[in-house]
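Record type: monomer structure entry
Structure origin: computed from sequence
Chain ID: A
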Amino acid sequence: MRIYGFFRFGPLEAAYIRARLYLPKLGIDRHAEFLIDTGATRTTISDRDALWLGIDYRRLQKTNASMGIGGSVASYVIKDVTLFFATEVGELFE
């Protein structure tokens, strides 16, 4: 089985993958694009993408701030979320 990604060129040139984000607790079932970061220890969603997806961070559990090159940001945990990926034959893989 293969899950295909794609490259986006420009200021944030990187590899991406499309996935379906299923979060029934918050009533969310939408497709999104995720940047592939093979060195990351967590999957993160920016505040802009969370807003676009309809995620209300006030309903999430706050956790320790995340640190990055640009400094620290408030972080929240999304529990009981499922990501589905399309395979080469079009099936969704959980």
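Annotation 1: Residues 6-93 form one domain.
Annotation 2: The mean pLDDT is 86.
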